[in-house]
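Handout, section B. The chain below has 79 residues.
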Amino acid sequence: MPDPRIKNDEQYEALVDKGYSKEKAARIANTPNAGRKGGEAATYEDRTKKEVYEQAKKVGIEGRSKMNKAELIEALRNN
């Protein structure tokens, strides 16, 4: 039975099958526009610290308020 907290069940299952943790797969599958391709987002380095911080907040990075921009970027890429 599908989990009602997961917005994109198909993507969630595919990510878990690839070896992602259930938490990370759920976070990705629940992002707005999950599964859509063709984004024109700037790299993290090209964004301001505030923009990177807001992205970290959106995906639930803990301890983000004490991180500098480089640490936020690393946490986003490795979470």
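Note. Residues 3 and 78 are 25 Å apart (CA to CA). Compare this with the example in section A.
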